[in-house]
C-alpha cells in the first residue's frame, strides 16, 4: 500500500469522527432546548424561601392527682425484731389507707431496708448496737378531698416519715385541653408569621414543615411535716399550667 493511500484513509477517518461529534452535540442542544431534561431539584429547592416561627399557648388547671410518700422507721436490738415491729406498723398504716377508700393499685412500695445501727461514742470502735428497719410506700390518688385524712390517719397508725406531697395533672386532664391548646398555638404562630411577612415585604404561600412541643408541667410541691397534734393537716393543691408550643415553617415569595 502506498503512502498516499494510507494518508487518504486517515484523513477520511478523521473527517467521519468530526461529523459524528458535531451530530451528537447538535442533538444534545435540541433535546435540552425542548425541555427534555428537568432542572436539578436541588437547585430548585435552593431557590425556595421560607421563614420559621413558633407559637405557644397555655392554660391554668387545678391538679387532679396527688402523690404522697409515707414511711415507717423502727429500731430494735435484733434485725428480726426491727423487721417485725416495722411490718406491724406498716400493715396498720396500709389498713388505715384502705379504710379511707384507697385500693391496692394506689399504694406502691418504694423503699424496704434493714440496716445495722452503730455506736457513735467518740473514740469507740464502731460496734453494732441494734438494727433499723425502713419501709415506705408511694400513695397516688385523685381523692384530693381526703389528703388531710390520709396523712393524719397514717401518722396515727404508725407512720413517722412523710417526705412530701406532689400534685400532678393527670394524662386524662391533659388530653382534655390539648386540642384547644394546639389550635391556639397554631393561631399564635400564624399571627406572628403574617406580621413578619408584612414587615419583610413577602407573602406566605404555603407550609413547609410543622411540629408540636409539649412543655413540662411545673408541679407544685409541698413538704409535709409529720403531724403530731390532732389538728387536720392543711393541704392545698394550688394551680399548674399546661403549655404547648408549635414550630411552623412557612413557604414565602416576594411580593
Automatic annotation (TrEMBL):
- Source organism of this protein record: Candidatus Methanoperedens nitratireducens
Which Gene3D superfamilies does the record cross-reference, listed alphabetically? Answer: Protein of unknown function (DUF541), domain 1, Protein of unknown function (DUF541), domain 2
Q: What is this protein called?
A: Outer membrane protein
Q: Which GO terms describe its biological process?
A: DNA damage response
